[in-house]
Design a protein that fits this description.
The complex is a heterodimer of chains A (175) and B (741).
Chain A (H helix, E strand, L loop, with lengths): L11 H12 L19 E9 L6 E9 L13 E8 L5 E7 L3 E3 L1 E8 L7 H4 E6 L12 E3 L3 E2 L4 E4 L4 E2 H4 L6
Parallel strand pairs in A: 1-9, 1-10
Antiparallel strand pairs in A: 1-4, 2-3, 2-6, 5-8, 6-7, 7-11
Chain B lengths: L1 H15 L3 E10 L9 E4 L4 E4 L5 E8 L1 E8 L3 E2 L1 E7 L4 E3 L2 E5 L13 E2 L7 E2 L7 E4 L1 H6 L6 H4 L5 E4 L2 E4 L13 E5 L2 E2 L18 E8 L3 H4 L6 E7 L5 E13 L15 E12 L3 E12 L8 E15 L2 E15 L4 E3 L10 E6 L7 E18 L2 E17 L6 E16 L7 E15 L4 E20 L2 E16 L2 E17 L2 E12 L3 H4 L3 E3 L2 E4 L7 E14 L3 E24 L4 E24 L6 E14 L8 E2 L6 E11 L2 E10 L17 E12 L2 E8 L18 E9 L1
Parallel strand pairs in B: 1-8, 1-9, 15-18, 35-38
Antiparallel strand pairs in B: 1-4, 2-3, 2-5, 5-7, 6-9, 10-11, 12-17, 13-14, 15-16, 17-18, 19-20, 19-45, 20-21, 21-22, 22-23, 23-26, 24-25, 26-27, 27-28, 28-29, 29-30, 30-31, 31-32, 32-33, 33-36, 34-35, 36-37, 37-38, 38-39, 39-40, 39-41, 41-42, 42-43, 43-44, 44-45
Classes of the chains: A mainly beta (175), B mainly beta (741).
Chain lengths: 175, 741
């Protein structure tokens, strides 16, 4: 013969629900700014160092990557990620994380964008501000590989005093 | 002066009536047909009334307190309902009677009347699609400021930063292109430009109940009823003079971590609303004025809201009624568009600051005015015929003030009209509903390509026929609607939306099955955007076509042991040509450009289980509810993209509610769990995605005309976000006092 349930037994279910509710409070938490690619991240990470004075006409500075180095002006828009990711310029250095798919990238660069930019006036409002450089020959872009995880130390120096317009790479075709 | 002169007379009449009240309402059959000569009587007192040809009854001078009503008519099964009559007040109760062989003394459960599923009154048990109801007491006990905060607790419904989802229909697209249609007393109220919904269009105290019809409803409602329909039904104006005062105030919790603190004071909110009404048998009117202001729970989140609403009814004859209603709301609010990520504010070394905003958006604020005006003329010339005509005007006007760029504005007018008839060709319970509807949207905006106009012209019909066999009864419903859409006077597009359904009532409960088509016409904002996002132009796509879906549903509802009710539905939706923003490169004669454009690109599948349980376990004082939605939402492979989860849809959505009442006191709680989104869009890598676990606690006291309620929303102060970089509300304490005269 079973003993009658103790008074507390009737409270088991509500207590269990209350404990469950209180125990599961793990929503958004403070996260220190990263200094390396976070676990599970796919893309590239590194430090951007800023030199020179930020132009007053700055709209944004974007980080983008090209699977192949652009051969024509039209190739300039074959970058990832779409839409591009802008980076803050308030401090002298910034550790970035740029989510891009697994693959090989021949040009990872910072693009400076002037206020009033549209794709139609890119010649005057879009400039290369710095790129990841080949460690053996720093005049050339460095090739970056992403293998389903984060690739660290893709560092870039952005020199606002030495930026290059599109015509630097692709002189205008005389019509 | 005249008002002052008649005031003592009104007061004297009110005092004389203080020990009694008035009970009135309608009695219909389950197909919505008014029942003539139905008997409505108070069991404990000699009060008996009969319905007129319109099915309307009225019992005057009913003793105050709890009384039991019996409603019956030969040939129908009677209903017994226990109601509360407040001295000096009038209370409305509508009933539907089920066909039965004999007049017995057996009591049957009162089945609520709904008006949205078939565009006419019908018993909930006869409804083909799944319907969730939220009564005024459900709304009142949650002590909310806007109705979306209460509707969010309905099973299968989820709000993502103000964008309503029914079974995962809409996802999140910054308020653009809602796949749910909002009705106010049956009048379409989606914005004319963006197709979104202003949930603060109506004062929350003016809303008597909310009906949520799940699944494609385009066979009756056309565009936007792609994933479902939400109908806000305003209060009937009671007889006599009445007033309702609502005061509310409260505070927001501060950030739980010192790294996230952003102000040195506690944010508060408060508001006031006053409704007064006067009603006679033939003429009634009500007006509401009110407003509220809030400091918000994060940086740059202050909001002021002012509101005016009114409603008038004229019973021109026993068969003819004219109703005019309107509302105007004005909001001035700051725009906390996106929370701050590292380097974009005083980040204190944090990867993100959810209570701070990106400095690029500092100073942004909006003025938003919106309102509607609607008139409905309804006539019931005979028991077999009812028709109504409706005209409506909805206006929205916003201005986004942006100190760091140009200001944006938009003005949208949406004019609507509808003529609808209900016909009962014989006495068998068959009903045929036919109608024609038109809508015209005019917009002028600097971000939606100047001035544009969209026209919608539709005709629809639906028939319902009862079928009886072997002691069970079934009802077959079939109908279709054809919509013609025009843009700027041209580009005619036609969409046909059929629906067929069956409801089977048997001793084992109610079975229902339906299949129907839903569609949504592109909003003018999706078709003609003209703005820049991060320097990339969002370009128009005049060739955008309506998105479409087929929905199949099988549902079952039954009572268990007299203390519980279960409603379960399996649903399957195949959607095609879904409209989504697409980042793309386009080649022009001169060069290649990167643009953002809305396109018909996505095919999707949304399937799952929608379960709703209500029960009174252990004791009648305890009422509990459970809602569970299992959602399988996949974006099917298209182009070079493989199949993947649809963005912003949770796999599991659970809502648990409980209320315990002792005398004048009541306590309750709601718990909402939403599993982590499998996929989101346009979210930075640092944007955390967490499951949602929100607990709301409430307590209330009500005695006579006064009630006091305390709500602690998000009591655990669980921090989470749905939309990218947008913190959802933190713990908020609200105290609401309501006095009804």
């Amino acid at each position: 013969m079973q003993a009658p349930p103790a008074p507390l037994a009737r409270l088991r279910l509500p207590l269990a629900v209350a404990i469950l509710g209180l125990a599961c409070n793990e929503g958004l938490q403070p996260v220190r700014a990263p200094t390396a690619c976070p676990p599970g991240f796919v893309g590239i990470c590194g430090t951007v160092r800023f030199r020179g004075a930020l132009p007053d006409s700055t709209q944004a500075v974007y980080l983008v990557a090209y699977p192949t180095f652009p051969r024509t002006r039209n190739d300039l828009f074959n970058f990832v990620p779409l839409p591009p990711q802008s980076i803050p310029t308030a401090d002298s250095t910034y550790f970035y994380t740029l989510g891009i798919p697994t693959g090989r990238y021949e040009w990872v660069l910072a693009a400076w964008v002037k206020q009033g930019f549209t794709t139609a006036n890119a010649d005057t409002t879009l400039r290369e501000a710095g790129f990841y450089r080949d460690k053996a020959d720093t005049t050339k872009p460095g090739v970056v590989s992403v293998y389903g995880t984060g690739t660290d130390s893709i560092n870039i120096v952005v020199d606002f005093a030495n930026m290059h317009p599109i015509s630097y790479y692709f002189p205008a075709v005389r019509r | 002066m005249r008002i002052l002169a008649i005031a003592p007379l009104m007061l004297a009449a009110s005092l004389a009536a203080q020990q009694t009240g008035i009970v009135y309402g309608t009695v219909r059959d389950t197909a919505g047909k008014p029942l003539h000569q139905a008997v409505v009587r108070i069991l404990s007192a000699p009060f008996t009334g009969y319905t007129n040809r319109a099915g309307v009854y009225r019992l005057g001078a009913v003793p105050s307190g709890r009384v039991t009503l019996e409603v019956g008519l030969i040939g129908y099964l009677p209903i017994h309902d226990t109601i509360t009559v407040i001295a000096g007040d009038s209370v409305r109760h509508d009933y539907s009677l089920l066909l039965g062989r004999v007049w017995t003394s057996v009591s049957f459960v009162v089945s609520p009347l709904v008006v949205t599923a078939a565009k006419r009154p019908q018993s909930l048990q006869d409804v083909v699609p799944s319907v969730a109801l939220m009564s005024d007491s459900d709304i009142a006990k949650r002590a909310v400021n806007t109705i979306d905060e209460a509707v969010d607790k309905a099973p299968g419904v989820q709000f993502l930063s103000g964008q309503v989802n029914i079974r995962g229909s809409s996802g999140f697209v910054e308020g653009l292109g809602s796949r749910v249609l909002l009705l106010v007393d049956g009048v379409p109220a989606n914005q004319g430009d963006r197709g979104g919904i202003n949930w603060d269009l109506l004062p929350v105290d003016d809303i008597e109940r909310v009906e949520v019809v799940k699944g494609a409803g385009s066979a009756l409602y056309g565009s936007a009823a792609f994933g479902g329909v939400v109908n806000l039904i305003t209060r009937e104006v009671p007889l006599g003079f009445h007033a309702r005062l609502r005061l509310t105030g409260g505070a927001y919790a501060n950030p739980p971590h010192s790294e996230w603190s952003f102000r040195d004071f506690t944010g508060v909110h408060g508001g006031v609303g006053l409704t007064s009404s006067y009603g006679q048998d033939d003429l009634r009117g009500a007006a509401t004025v009110g407003g509220w202001r809030s400091d918000g729970y994060r940086q740059q989140d202050h909001r002021d809201h002012w509101q005016l609403a009114g409603k008038g009814e004229w019973q021109a004859s026993p068969d003819t009624r004219l109703r005019v209603s309107g509302s105007w709301a004005s909001d001035q609010y700051q725009e906390p568009l996106a929370w701050c990520e590292r380097g974009r504010c005083e980040d204190r070394g944090q990867a993100y600051q959810p209570f701070l905003i990106d400095t690029g958006g500092l100073g942004n604020h909006t003025r938003s005015d919106k309102g509607y005006l609607a008139a409905v003329l309804a006539r019931t010339p005979s028991e077999r015929v009812h028709w109504q005509a409706r005209a409506s005007w909805l206006r929205t006007h916003f201005t986004d003030f942006q100190p760091r760029s140009r200001d944006d504005f938009g003005v949208a007018d949406r004019f609507g009209g509808e003529l609808r008839g209900e016909f009962r060709p014989d006495g068998s319970g068959s009903v045929v509903t036919v109608g024609a509807e038109t809508g015209l949207s005019n917009i002028t905006s600097n971000i939606f390509g100047g001035t544009h106009r969209q026209g919608e012209y539709a005709a629809y019909g639906e028939g319902e026929r009862p079928l009886g066999r072997n002691g069970s009864s079934a009802q077959l419903t079939a109908g279709a609607r054809i919509d013609f859409l025009t843009i700027d006077g041209g580009g005619l597009t036609a969409v046909v939306s059929p629906r067929v359904g069956v409801v089977l009532l048997s001793g084992a409960g109610i079975w229902r099955a339906s299949a129907g088509r839903g569609f949504r016409a592109p909003s003018l904002a999706e078709r003609f955007p003209d703005l820049f996002v991060n320097g990339f132009r969002v370009v128009s796509n005049p060739n955008l076509e309506p998105e479409e879906a087929w929905t199949l549903e099988v549902g079952h509802a039954r009572s268990i042991g007299g203390t519980a009710r279960v409603d379960a539905a399996l649903f399957w939706t195949e959607a095609s040509r879904l409209i989504e923003p697409s980042v793309d490169t386009i080649k022009t004669a001169v060069d290649t450009q990167v643009v953002i454009q809305f396109k018909n690109v996505v095919r999707a599948r949304l399937a799952g289980l929608d379960l709703a349980v209500s029960a009174n376990p252990l004791t009648p004082r305890l009422s509990t509810t459970l809602g569970y939605t299992l959602l399988y939402a996949r974006e099917l492979a298209h182009g070079i993209l493989p199949e993947r989860p649809l963005a912003f849809r949770p796999r599991h959505l659970v809502t648990i509610g409980a209320d315990y009442t002792v005398g004048d006191l009541g306590v309750g709680a709601d718990f909402r769990y939403s599993s982590r989104f499998e996929r989101v869009e346009l979210s930075p890598p640092s944007d955390p995605r967490v499951a949602v676990k929100v607990l709301d606690l409430r307590a209330g006291w009500a005695r006579g005309p006064a009630s006091l309620r305390v709500l602690v929303a998000n009591a655990l102060n669980y921090l989470y976000n749905y939309a990218p970089r947008t913190l959802e509300p933190v713990r908020t304490v609200s105290v609401t006092f309501v006095y009804i005269y």
